[in-house]
Amino acid sequence: MTSLSSTFIAGTQHSPVSIQFADRDILMRNTNARTGGALGYGAELQVVDGGEVVGYITPYSDDEYGSIKASMFGQILPRLCRSVDEALHEILG
Description:
Blueprint: H1 6-14, E1 17-21, E2 24-30, E3 45-49, E4 52-61, E5 64-69, E6 79-81, H2 84-92
Antiparallel strand pairs: 1-2, 2-3, 3-4, 4-5, 5-6
């Protein structure tokens, strides 16, 4: 199980990561998505499934990040996650 840490986030921002999750090919990559254009609340990674952005990973602490479906970004608070699997499960169900 891969830890959702500042090291993983920084590496993925530099080079996108392809992950197999529940028989799907998921891509995690850098993003500059911001809620309503507001500074201070944004995502660090986007989660892409079949070319469609399905979710975002948001900052919280060095070893904990938020995970949220793209359709809910900016509407509710992300769920805090410590692993990539946990974050993808939150986004993809």
